[in-house]
Input
Amino acid sequence: MNTADQALVKKMNKALILEQIIANAPVSRAKLSEITGLNKSTVSSQVSSLLQRDIIFETGRGQSSGGRRPVMLKFNRKAGYAIGADIGTNYIIVVLTDLEGEIIEQYERELDETDIPATEQALIELIGLATLKMPDSHYGLTGIGVCVPGLVDNDRNIVFTPNKPIHLLQMKSLLEKAYNVPVFVENEANAGAIGEREYGHSGHLEHAIFVSINAGIGLGILMNGKLFRGVQGFSGEAGHMSIDMNGPLCRCGNKGCWELYASERAVFSPYLSHTKAPLYQTVKELADHGDQKMLETFETFGFYIGVGLVNIIRTLNPETIILRNTIVESYPAIVDSIKKTISSRSKKEALTDYRLNISSLGRTASSLGVSYIVIERFLERFIDEQF
Ligand SMILES: [Zn+2]
Output
């Protein structure tokens, strides 16, 4: 084997060992050798190198299988931190997490959807606040992830954010300069799918659809556990799937798009106009008082969501659908109306099995997803010994 090949094998071994420590901690060197199939001296030398670089640490002693009780190894989740920012149409959420995605600080601000300077200012300000709360650590801030409801191409350059045309490329280079860390950009629904896969409570997600319903509707599609992006990275724009060929013209150029019916903006617009309170607060108050019109609106919301989901279930045959919407999360009964619509529009034989779950991460799903992307890239660079 030549030197380049040897270096590559070492890197792959190191990556494999670190991955297994993260997945199985606390774990002994002997157990790692058993899991990875690598011999004990390889495990031992790679573990020493990881210990030296503070990304893992030794903790207590585990069960003995005869002989001395082995020293156990753990991933040092506090070796560095990540920031994830979700810029919605009318809100921004910023989370500071450790390297296992545990939220250390979380900030959220409601924003006027047309006020671009205020959104950009909030992004800078909340990220600044998060960095101030970051505990001391070996690697400090490892990166910043930002997601937006828009088209993000495979090179992670924003292409189109119709609801929120912020100057994200300028923001990206500004943040990179200010904090001297990489900044990653992702589509909000894709980020949510990653967040659910890594940190959600829906179990192992192999063939799953993350449906994000806010001002618009976006899908994050997981196929064989991986994000399906399409050739340019623009997959999942199901909000612009037509459900009425003669329906009203949409800003995307199509007619009768799903999100013209089933988005929050479409269904709850009467409640957006006559009050200054946030939509969720208004809706919650009315529903809590048993307001008949509001309960009917919920039913309608579920109906329109179901009409689109039938098409998605038929097209992609997902095992799991994860629904991310603050109103549905507050009123899970809406799911009944979604399911009722799906069954009423499918012959029993034509409808495949599917699980419909409400997002367990709720409003933080996408910010946690981009935070995970930061951590994943940090660990890749770490293995490449770029530190
Ligand atoms: Zn459209």
DSSP finds 13 helices and 15 strands in the chain.
